[in-house]
Design a protein that fits this description.
The complex is a heterodimer of chains A (696) and B (368).
Chain A lengths: L1 E3 H7 L6 H10 L3 E6 L6 E5 L10 H11 L23 E4 L7 E8 L8 H9 L7 H13 L4 E4 L13 E6 L5 E3 L5 E3 L5 E5 L2 E5 L3 E2 L11 E8 L2 H11 L4 H7 L7 H15 L5 E2 L4 E3 L7 E5 L1 H8 L5 H10 L3 E3 L4 E5 L9 H12 L17 E2 L1 H15 L3 E2 L5 E2 L2 H5 L24 E2 L4 H13 L5 E8 L14 E8 L3 E2 L6 H4 L3 H16 L4 E4 L5 E11 L2 E9 L1 H6 L6 E7 H7 L15 E10 L4 H12 L3 E11 L7 E10 L8 H19 L2 E3 L1
Parallel strand pairs in A: 4-7, 20-23
Antiparallel strand pairs in A: 1-3, 2-3, 5-13, 5-14, 5-15, 6-13, 7-10, 8-9, 10-11, 11-12, 16-18, 17-18, 21-22, 23-24, 24-29, 26-27, 27-28, 28-29, 30-32, 30-33, 31-32
Helix pairs in contact in A: 1-3, 4-5, 5-8, 6-7, 9-11, 10-11, 12-16, 19-20
Chain B lengths: L5 H17 L3 H12 L4 H8 L8 H36 L10 E2 L6 H15 L3 E2 L5 E3 H4 L24 E3 L5 H9 L18 H5 L7 E10 L11 E11 L4 H16 L5 E8 L2 E10 L16 E10 L1 H6 L8 E8 H9 L6 H4 L2 H4 L3
Helix pairs in contact in B: 1-2, 1-4, 2-4, 3-4, 5-11
The chains are: A alpha+beta (696), B alpha+beta (368).
Chain lengths: 696, 368
């Protein structure tokens, strides 16, 4: 809202520099966003919080300023000289539903001659961002800017009458579906029952609290005017304005609640200005036609001074608090508790806590001390799942992956790109009912789409080497009407080079591959679960056949990893191999190991032996490994694969595997003979159970 | 032993010295040492056997054995030095180019949003707050009604907030977790713990059968607003908020806690300004500004020439929100404050556009 400083100063005379004034207003909650203009024409652009509709006027801002300066606004009530017949004999007012329009006040002014308003009025309107129209409309706008009450001027002679009636009738009612009205901006608008209307017996003549209609608007030939100064329900005006996609000076104010007690004063002010702005002798009909069936009662609130002090952390006396509240034009009766009567312009004050806030504001937030609470709540920290998440994220970074933060909203297209079949449950996401753009219309059900989007973004920008992880939620719709399941997942995506220092190792060795990514997952499992996990071949819509694995830990499926299929890569325009994994972090957390307990290490030397053997290519290495482990006996300390080779000169379909075994006893030195006996069992088992051809 | 003459004993020394001098490597030299001076070494055995010699032979044999040992030791030590010098000379001839790059995985980088969030969680922990999370897709009853939003509040409009159904929505702030955190502080036997989240906001207090312990939590997380994604606008954003509900909490405590928090995060010289503001779920409410770190309060574009940057909202928990959490607002009070993480991260790392944070360009990530 724009407020000219000279106008403000008329209400609260002061000699303060403009910046000081801005600071003062900002500190009580009327944030001066910008100071514009200079000299005589300085304007404050003020942001008013939505609860303070009473501040959307020069008077409202002046009240706050006066309160801060511990003074009163200089108040001059407008004076109107009435001369015509009673207004009530000139127009009938009917309120269909007083909850939507609790009050409709009007005056009728005759003998006006439409002309431009004077220079000073033009200047003020322009400073406030309004366009001058004519003397009558400008008078209503100036009264609104000054007092906060939006007004509307109808050409009285254009108002319709009911059949047989001899005076016009104003009806405030909801619009019927498809009813139409051309507003003063020339737009024809189709209305809905959300919109509250001002109508006459022939049809709509204005959108209540939003904008007037062109059929009854003031024009050059207007001589008689009906001035409307009404109070409309804020929610109704907001709904109507939204439904029509409109926002006006009037609707902005009505949505934030206008003073129901202020309609008449605004009428008087407008009349006074019309008289001033017209050369012709103006006749003002006597009295106000005021439909106000259920007058607002002043709210009475009790404030316990002890309560206020204990909430604010200050020690004010009841008398000081009473004084503060009186500065806000509240009526205060002192006693054990303060009994406070609230004027109608402060519709935001309803409860004791509202008064506590007012005491704080008048006292000044800057005068509240800073203290740390002495509390009985326990020590702080992270919830266990956040500790775990942080541990995982640290491990991932240590293992060479950078952290991505990806959006959880996506389009349906990603599911096609990653090749989900039509009946895949991940195809049934939670969809936004009011999405803004189709590419961000639903919540993701997998991290794969997010990860591949990142790889594709990088590739589009010429970055071929990507190694990222993402800890983020997926959203899996639950049974009807329940919140979706929202587990935290860990996603990994790698492509291009893996290590620094490619000058020493061959190009193949430093590029990411399946086993490099698997190694990261194994390291993660080793760190959090003291287990290597189990990996088995699987089919996965996004992964190449034969290059995909399902990952389990302690018998529970945790997720998948593998090489992205060519088809999926094509869909993302990724020419180079990409490897991805997605793990359920919550399941992983459940499988996490108890804290390790130390087992003493042996002081005796180890004996190491190797074994190499040929196996059919399709026997998984893991099978040989577990067989060795089983056959080697209790003295086996470590077992490590050190070679897996196929091709020339080996026979086709065969693979050479070579393991290194280390034996050790905790209680004494193991003899060569004992180790040899262990190895003989190993070789025997490999031969007998797997048909392995042991290589000497 | 008796079969070795004194001459032969002396010969052992020369023999050892000769072999030592001929050793071509440290390993060979070590073999020589073991063969003569080891536990079962030839000279060691002679020395060990001295005791069993007739007394008249002992002095001479002993002298010879000791001389042999000394000769062997000296020769071995000399050869060891020679070999070490040779190796050093070889190494010196084969110098490493220490400027070649090292090998191994490149360390991963932390996302600036996470850095900001984690630092703030650590500070909150230091102030006694425990980090908890709530669901991102939430009951609209917890996102709005329980937080004292009146029916038809503008923020609830479909223009501004996403919905999945009328009842379920991506949360617009982390505050619904306040309600969950407060209800979780009730005794196991108290009906408030198992209340339907969609219950009317005053039901928890009516149903409460216990005296809930204080709540002191910090809630980090992702939130949503209905915006088109542009360089400077985004539909998801991170928030962090702190909540303390206990007897005797005051506005002074809010100021003190926020001041301590922000000085810990932004530095001890940070100035914090509180001004009246309006939020449905707090009263009194205050917005929180800090002196602009870009221009040192001289005025710049970032702070819109005011010298101050607004970074969050705060206030005393509204009595209706305490009620929704099952606390008696006449017995306890609460303080709450929250920040948008993006703005703080942008400010800290000099990132002009919010969308940069979500592009995950490797050239961006590698900088942190």
């Amino acid at each position: 809202m724009r407020i000219p400083v000279d106008w403000l100063n008329e209400y609260v005379p002061n000699e303060l520099p403009v910046r000081e004034l801005a600071y003062i207003l900002t500190n009580v909650g009327l944030e001066v966003e910008a100071i514009e203009g200079a000299d005589e024409a300085v304007v404050f652009d003020i942001t008013v919080t939505p609860n303070r509709g009473d501040c959307l006027s020069v008077l409202g801002a002046a009240r706050e300023l006066a309160m801060t300066l511990r003074t009163k606004v200089r108040c001059r009530l407008p004076a109107v000289v009435e001369s015509g017949p009673p207004a009530e004999s000139l127009a009938k007012i009917t309120l269909d539903d007083p909850t939507l329009c609790p009050r409709y006040s009007s005056r009728i002014v005759r003998g006006v001659k439409i002309a431009p308003s004077p220079e000073w009025a033009h200047r003020r309107l322009a400073l406030c961002g309004l366009r001058p129209i004519d003397n009558v409309v400008d008078a209503t706008n100036l009264a609104m800017l000054e007092l906060g009450q939006p007004l509307h001027a109808f050409d009285y002679r254009l108002l319709g009458k009911a059949d047989g009636a001899d005076i016009p009738e104003i009806v405030v009612r909801s619009a019927k579906a498809r009813e139409r009205l051309v507003t003063i901006d020339g737009e024809e608008r189709e209305l809905t029952p959300d919109v509250l209307l001002i109508a006459d017996p022939t049809g709509p003549i204005a959108l209540a609290g939003i904008m007037g209609g062109s059929s009854t608007e003031i024009h050059d030939g207007t001589t008689e005017v009906l001035l409307e100064s009404a109070h409309f329900d804020p929610i109704t005006v907001r709904r109507g304005a939204r439904a029509l996609g409109m926002s006006t000076e009037a609707s902005y104010r009505f949505e934030r609640t206008v003073d129901p007690g202020g309609t008449v004063r605004a009428l008087e002010r407008a009349c006074e200005l019309i008289v001033e702005f017209c050369d012709s002798p103006v006749e003002i009909a006597s009295g106000v036609a005021d439909a106000y069936p259920n007058p607002y009662e002043k709210v009475e609130i009790e404030l316990r001074p002890g309560r206020a002090n204990s909430l604010l952390g200050v020690e004010l006396t009841a008398a000081e608090m009473a004084e503060y509240l009186r500065l806000l034009d509240l009526h205060v009766e002192e006693g054990e508790v303060l009994r406070v009567r609230v004027p109608t312009f402060r519709q935001d004050l309803q409860n004791e806590i509202d008064l506590v806030e007012e005491v704080a504001r008048v006292h000044g937030y800057e005068n509240i001390p800073e203290e740390l609470p002495r509390t009985g709540a326990g020590v702080g920290g992270l919830a266990p799942e956040l500790v775990f998440e942080r541990q995982v994220r640290q491990l991932m970074r240590g293992l060479g992956l950078s952290e991505a933060v990806t959006p959880s909203l996506e389009g349906a297209e990603g599911h096609n790109r990653i090749g989900l079949s039509e009946d895949d449950t991940r195809r049934r996401p939670a969809v936004l009912s009011n999405w803004k753009t189709l590419d961000r219309s639903q919540l993701r059900t997998t991290l794969l789409t997010s990860l591949l989007d990142v790889v594709a973004h990088n590739r589009r920008h010429g970055v071929e080497e990507v190694s990222i992880f993402d800890v983020g939620r997926v959203y899996l719709p639950g049974p009807g009407g329940e919140l979706p399941d929202q587990p935290q997942h860990l996603g990994l995506a790698v492509t291009g080079a893996m290590t620094r220092g490619r000058w020493r190792v061959g190009r193949d060795l430093h590029a990411w591959d399946f086993y490099a990514l698997k190694g990261i997952i194994e390291n993660l499992f080793a760190a959090v679960a003291h287990s290597a996990g189990e990996f088995a071949p699987c089919e996965h819509p996004a992964l190449s056949p034969g290059r995909a694995a399902v990952v389990s830990l302690k018998g529970r499926v945790i997720g998948h990893l593998g090489e992205v299929s060519e088809k999926v890569r094509d869909a993302y325009d990724l020419p180079a191999p990409v490897f991805v994994a997605e793990l359920d972090l919550e399941l992983l957390g459940e499988c996490a190991a108890e804290e390790a307990q130390y087992r003493p290490v042996s002081r005796y030397p180890a004996v190491t032996r190797d074994v190499a053997f040929l196996l059919p290519r399709d026997v998984p290495a893991e099978k040989a490994e577990s067989l060795i482990r089983e056959a080697a006996g209790d003295d086996l300390e470590t077992l490590a694969l050190f070679d897996a080779f196929e091709g020339e000169p080996l026979p086709q379909g065969k693979r050479n595997l070579a393991f290194s075994l280390s034996f050790r006893r905790p209680d004494r030195t193991l003899t060569d003979e004992e180790a040899e006996a262990d190895m003989e069992r190993v070789r025997g088992a490999l031969r007998e159970k797997l048909g392995a051809q042991i290589r000497e | 032993m008796a079969e070795l003459s004194v001459e032969e004993i002396g010969g052992l020394g020369e023999q050892a010295a000769g072999e030592a001098a001929a050793a071509a490597s440290r390993q060979e030299l070590d073999q020589v040492r073991v063969a003569y001076l080891g536990r079962a070494g030839k000279i060691t055995e002679v020395l060990r056997g001295l005791g069993s010699l007739p007394a008249e032979l002992r002095p001479e044999a002993g002298k010879a054995a000791n001389q042999a040992r000394q000769m062997a030791e000296t020769a071995i030590e000399k050869r060891r030095e020679e070999l070490a010098a040779e190796e050093a000379a070889e190494r010196a001839a084969d110098q490493l180019d220490v400027t070649l790059p090292g090998r191994g995985p490149e360390v991963g980088h932390r996302h600036p949003l996470m850095t900001t969030l984690e630092d703030m969680l650590d500070i909150a922990a230091g102030l006694g707050y425990t980090a908890v999370q709530g669901p991102e897709v939430e009951w609209s009853a917890l996102n709005w009604t329980a937080l004292n939003y009146p029916p038809d509040h503008p923020a609830m409009d479909e223009q501004d907030s996403f919905y999945i159904t009328d009842e379920i929505m991506p949360r617009t702030h982390t505050s619904p977790a306040q309600i969950r955190a407060m209800r979780a502080m009730h005794d196991d036997s108290c009906p408030v713990r198992s209340l339907d989240p969609r219950c009317p906001p005053d039901e928890p207090l009516e149903k409460c059968t216990c005296t809930p312990a204080p709540t002191r939590v910090v809630v980090p997380g992702r939130t949503y607003r209905r915006e088109s994604v542009t360089l400077t606008h985004h539909d998801i954003f991170y928030q962090l908020e702190c909540l303390l509900v206990e007897e005797g909490i005051t506005l002074a405590h809010l100021k003190g806690t926020l001041g301590a928090f922000l000085r810990a995060y932004l530095g001890p010289e940070t100035k914090v300004r509180f001004r009246p503001d309006f939020f449905p779920f707090t009263e009194p409410s205050a917005d929180v500004s800090v002196n602009c770190l870009f221009c040192e309060a001289k005025g710049c574009r970032f702070c819109k020439h005011s010298g101050w940057v607004e970074i969050g909202g705060s206030g005393l928990v509204h009595p209706n929100v305490l009620t929704a959490g099952g606390y008696d607002p006449d017995r306890v009070s609460g303080l709450a404050f929250g920040f948008g993480i993006e703005r703080l991260a942008q400010h800290r790392f000099n990132i002009m556009h919010i969308r940069t944070l979500y592009d995950n360009d490797m050239r961006f990530l590698r900088q942190f």
